[in-house]
User: What shape does this take?
Amino acid sequence: MAKSPNAFRTISEAAEEVGAPQHVLRFWETKFVFLTPLKRAGGRRFYRPQDIVLLKAVKRLLHAEGLTIKGVQRLHKEQGLKRLAHYGDPDGAVVFEPEGAAPVTVTPAPAAGPSSIRLRQVLAELEGARARLDAVLSRSA
Assistant: This one.
């Protein structure tokens, strides 16, 4: 069964969709502050549709356009996340939150009780807030 376009992707699914090995995605996360997948217990990464677009943009800029890592970092700093995302999603099909805000998509678990669903929503919101805070703190460091 195929995943919804808004579903989170594992690192193996993201690597396949982007066309880059998993270790390269992990490396890019260390070089680009705007690449911040959600991390669950045990450090498992989950990539939002916006993350996939940014990974595709980084790949295109580095491999097809010939920019260096510093060049991509400069492009992000000078032109912002939305402009950078254009390289990974030229049609603008994926919506981005304002700069520095990490969008949160909540998909409740099937066959769970109302209180369980609410707890999952709160957890997802808290993880999104933490990701945004981490992004802001990493920029100021």
